[in-house]
Amino acid sequence: MEGDGKKILLILGTPKSGSLCHALADAYARGARSQGHVVHELRLGEIQFDPVLHEGYDQSQTLEADLVDAQRQIHWAEHLVFVYPVWWGGVPALLKGFLDRVLLPGFAYKFRGRSQRWDKLLAGRSADLLVTLDTPPWYFRWIYGAPVHHQMIRTTLGFCGIRKRRLAEFAPVRLASEEQRQQWVIKAEAMGRKA
Question: What sequence ranges are listed for the domain Flavodoxin-like fold (predicted)?
């Protein structure tokens, strides 16, 4: 059965343990596995790496073993799932540091000589984004301009050739009842079943 399912890498991008993001990630994985998909998980709060790209991309920085494994899993995956909270309008520093360290030139993209053109080395993959936030979605979109969505979809994943399939917002978390949270978990599981 493993050969029939889609190869999915789920990346949980929060350092906080026991959060709603964990419940959403678990539910998505459960739904996907119920349909025969193969799901690998990267819980960034549990792996070891320095999230700081100390010299930018001017100098090479040795990848820790967990980041080498992360690159291997990204190459393996057909579909990526990112689950993370919105903090200060963006992704948590841990997830940003992970992306900075892993999506390197030569792995995720490659410029063509001295031109403004580049090859998208992760093309052919798709992604779902499950995002929690305390701001009501309409306010986040129309007043703040949803900056984290543009960052993730266009200037990060899109730059590398990863196509966004679905974006689901779960909000506002702070005011949500337990019943509402359970409905969100059910929604995440349904998304996994339709991976």
Answer: 6-174
